[in-house]
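Shipment paperwork, digital attachment
Item: protein structure file
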Amino acid sequence: MQSENRSAFNTQKILLATGDTDWGNETLTNLTSHGFECQLVREGKECQLTVYKDKFSTVLLDPDIKNHSGIEVLKYLKLNYPGLRIILVFPDQKTSDVYQELKTNLTRIGVAKSFTRPFQMKFMVEYLNELPPSNSQKNLPMNSALIGEPDPKTKDKDCTRVDIESLFSGNLAIFDYYIRLKENHFVKIFRRGEYVDAERIRKYSEKKVEFLYFLTEERRNYIHYMNEMMRVSTTTGNADNKVILSQMKNVAGKFMEEINTHGLRPELIEESKAISENVYNFIKRSPSLRKIMEDFQTFHPEEYTHCFLVSFFASAICKNLDWAGPRTQEAVSLGAYLHDIGLTLLPSVLRERDPASYTPEEMETYHTHPRLGAEMLSNIPEINYQVVQIVYQHHERLGGEGFPNQLTGLRIYPLAKIVALADKFADLLVLKKVSPIEGIKIFLQDRENLLSFDQTVIRALVRCFLRDEEK
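Attachment content:
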């Protein structure tokens, strides 16, 4: 039996990270006797440095490790080495209970499994024996055929698509992923619980595969999963701006699809808050807003949902307003994300058409959507007064030509002025099909824009496009 284990696992290389020297040495000896190549480290910082210097297939991580903490090490490993398999080993039940929330979210954050000591080592060995090497997908044959498992039961009407580059490689797939070959013809390329291999994704991209698909019934889980992943990315600042923008685009689109299908349910309110917080954190931690605007150059604004663009630019404006503190910025980001929620209450025949084509009667109905949205949100305890007023007044203009109440100047809620400008700017980008840097030049050339929006807010938007030495 031992010889079988050795042959089965000669490709496995395991790093054991624990501050418990006795248990670490005992486990090292045990796993080595079963044919695993192992190395032991006793501090979190040493774990990170060892992974940087060498290649491992699996890390057995004690969450209670010191210098750095287990949580810090976990975040570092998942962000910088997404293909690395991580297994948490809690030193005792008391520690395990402390990390209950972490244990609940293991799959979402990309941890393969957890063990709580004491346990019989044979269970760890049996689990490791069942795992394929983490690089098992790296040598796909490069021929014209797409690798995958045909699924005749899956049809177009059942599926939702996402950009392939937005997938978090190295994490566990939280559901099945498919590639669409033609109408109603799908192949399954990742199974639920399988590791998403970055090299495999790259090879599909080289074959001009732009989108992956999952079952629409999983859309709510996708939104939650993406929010959790982006929360880590935006708070640590280790992810590439372009990748984050792509991921935000996808989750914002799926969020609006879910609202249009099922309405604004309580759990979706929580997800909208999470999305807005991620946008806010992304803007807050970015040293140069101009660099972000330049990253937008490679994307087409019309591919982004309107609500995301408005939330993004509203948050960017807030960063350049001295009086906008953290709570104000969070309210603006959420209000911007939900600013058009009242449109979901309009007749579908109006939602599917451009307002420029409305009859006078239809335009009158369209002008009710800020009020409808504010009324909807005012009945939700989790939504505060600031957000409601943003939604209610985001179409008001300084000269009184806005709607629904033709408010003027100081009568318009200050935070609504921010979202109003972001809303107009987002519309301009999509209408003109230009990047933000091109769009700001067009915006400033229109005198009507300069008269309709607050000058302080306009200057804050312009500062997003200036280099640091120009500010």
